Amino acid sequence: MCNRPNIVIVMTDQQRADLRRGCGYELDTMPFLDRWAEGGVDFARAYTPNPTCMPARVSMFTGRYSQSHRVRTNHNAEDALYTEDLLDVLKKAGYTTALFGKNHSHRKPEDFDRAKLFGHLGYEGEENTTPEEREFADFLRSTDHLETHRPSPGGVTVQHPYRSVSDALEFMDQMEGKGPFFAWISFAEPHNPYQAPEPYYDLFPPEALPPVKGKKEDLKGKGERFVWLRQCWEKVLGEEIDERILRARSNYLGMLRLIDDQMKRLTEGVRQRGLEENTIFLYLSDHGDFAGEYDLIRKGTELPDVLCHIPMIWRGPGIRSAGRVKDGYVSIVDILPTICDFLGIPVPFGCQGKSIRPLLEGCPPLEDRPLPEDRSPLGDRAFPEGGGAFCEYDRAFAESGYGGLYWEERDHLDPVTEGATNGWKNFDCLNTWTQCGQVRALWKDGYHIQLDMMGNGYLYHTDEDPSELRNLWDEPDYAQIRAALLAGLAAEMMKQTDVIPAPHYRYRVKVHPKGFWHAEDAAEDPGVRKGRDI
Questions:
Q1: Which of 23, 115, 149, 416 gives 20 to 30 Å between its CA and that of 482?
Q2: Is 138 helix (H, G, I), strand (E, B) or coil?
Q3: Is residue 105 within 8 Å of residue 61, measured between CB atoms?
Q4: Which residues belong to any copy of the Sulfatase N-terminal domain (predicted)?
Q5: What is the pLDDT of residue 327?
């Protein structure tokens, strides 16, 4: 047990995948992370299962999609359904567990062996003991979650990422010689309020930012809920909306650089303590941010690529130094089974992710797999014949919506009385209107298909159209691709049908111990027995 690796998960909140130079962005927002990623596996095709904070975080811990774990909004923590989660598994394996930063999961702080909390508005569990920390907390509370137009007070050391890293390093000092540890370092940034101290506040000036490709004129093609979202922001931000969105983007990018510097400080601290060679690092975000795309900020409706596509970098013992890879699609739900695989621990019953350890260790790239001459790459991968391990990583799946019909203007619901806004002084982009209904999406072979419960569909070639401005759904030349992707989406939705509760009499559920579907060594879960009552 003492030889098991330490595990450090660094999670940012609301970080878009593509705003790094290492991902092709014009500005050098995270130079350290780009260099650090070269020593590990930096997945170019990593996705969240739900672009909402709490559902995504519960998925990380349980390895389950939100329709199965039932935390489908930010207000359903008590509804979490699972057998065992990451915390349970690691504690049984002898790990000391710790949380530093934002929680917003189904787990309570006291469930961890150590916990120090930081939220968004300064008084969400923080221990603000100095005058500088209290001034900064008051500043955060005054923002009302909007962008700021002056540098944040107190400098870098009062910022929550700095304090979370300090707490984590102190915890590691206390753990010396005491066995393996798990540290979840959960930054509440670059999530709104969009703020940054000097020298980050004007590091990427608004007037020098590269233009976004999607504009408000494109919103109609994205759907009515996108149009409604922009109209709400126009009410809140007023006539200066475009300038204010630019300032929000500037602060967002400045915060990415601050996080980058703290990531450097963390990894150097781990190295100085002699822990690097026995620590698995995972850097990711729970979901993305519009960050100005389509003249929108924050998040909200549907499953666009900019909200679902996330950074995910693994580094540590047994993980290859591959840098940026497009070997396959990976998801937040894959974290639990992958850690279980590395530790030789059974995957909890009901886990819906799969181990991505083969990708981390360097199985042949998906693109190198020989294909029959009479099949296109898309067709072959959409309908695998045996397929082996390659087919396990050829798609990503996401979902959103808490159910029911779409709310419309004729329903006469008022955003103010519903609590979506404070007299239009602010706006909660996650609300009754943006979260209702059901939407499902699949990413595969460079395409993204989305379908809602009413049959409304969207198809994008994200490799060529990352801003998703051209909907190919009704274009005849893409009819065969649409059909193949719809079949893939339907298959994925059936695969993710929950196995909990297991049948109470005679029937046994057959699952692969690593979460695979196409592997030849599929086996029964030894934990599933006749009459098992979950």
A1: 23
A2: helix
A3: yes
A4: 5-345
A5: 81
Q: Return the number of other C-beta atoms located less than 10 Å from residue 167's C-beta.
A: 21
- Tell me 45's DSSP state: S
Q: Which two tokens stand for residue 507?
A: 């029937």
CA 442 to chain centre: 15
What are the 10-residue block averages of pLDDT along the chain, 534 residues in total?
Answer: 86 98 97 98 98 98 98 97 98 98 98 98 95 98 97 98 98 94 98 98 97 96 96 97 98 98 98 97 98 98 97 97 94 98 96 97 57 41 42 95 94 91 94 97 97 98 97 98 98 96 91 86 50 40
What is the rounded distance in angstroms from the CA atom of residue 365 to the CA atom of residue 224?
39
Stated as kind and residue range, the H or E segment containing 270 is helix 241-272
Tell me how far CA of residue 210 lies from CA of 198, 246, 253, 294, 413, in angstroms: 22, 10, 12, 14, 38
Q: What is the pLDDT of residue 523?
A: 56
Token pair 């939100």: residue: 66
Strand partners, 190: 13
Q: What is the pLDDT of residue 316?
A: 98
3-state secondary structure of 323: strand
Interatomic CA distance for residues 158 and 170, integer angstroms: 17
Per-residue H/E/C for 13-32: ECCCCCCCHHHCCCCCCCHH
Is 354 in contact with 340 (CB distance < 8 Å)? no
- Backbone φ and ψ for 224, nearest 5 degrees, come out as -60, -35
* 3-class secondary structure, 335: helix
Q: Where are the beta strands (DSSP E) in 292-446?
A: 309-310, 312-315, 323-325, 330-331, 396-403, 437-444
Name the β-bridge partners of 7: 182, 280
Which residues on neighbouring strands pair with residue 400, listed in sequence order? Answer: 439
- Cβ neighbour number for residue 244 with a 10 Å cutoff: 20
Residue 93's SS3 state is coil
Tell me what pLDDT residue 2 has: 52
* DSSP category for residue 369: S
User: What is the Cα–Cα distance from 331 to 326, expressed in whole angstroms?
Assistant: 13
What dihedral angle (degrees, nearest 10) is formed by the CA atoms of 169, 173, 179, 182? Answer: -10
pLDDT at 370: 45
Phi, psi of 195 (to 5 degrees): -140, 155
Q: Annotate 506-519 with b (16+ C-beta within 10 A) or e (fewer).
A: eeebebbbbbbebb
Token readout for 451 is 């379908």
Helices (H), 427-533: 432-435, 479-495
Residue 322, SS3 per DSSP: coil
Quote the CA–CA distance of 20 and 496 in Å, as a whole number. 32
User: Helix or strand or coil: residue 444?
Assistant: strand
Task: For the chain, count helices (H), then strands (E).
Answer: 15, 15
| pLDDT score recorded for residue 521 | 61
User: What integer pLDDT is reported at residue 462 of this predicted model?
Assistant: 97
Q: How far is CA 90 from CA 61, 405, 473, 513, in A?
A: 11, 40, 44, 17
The side-by-side arrangement of strands in the sheet containing 181-190 is 114-117, 96-101, 181-190, 6-13, 279-285, 312-315, 41-43, 323-325
Rg of the chain over all Cα atoms, to the nearest angstrom: 22
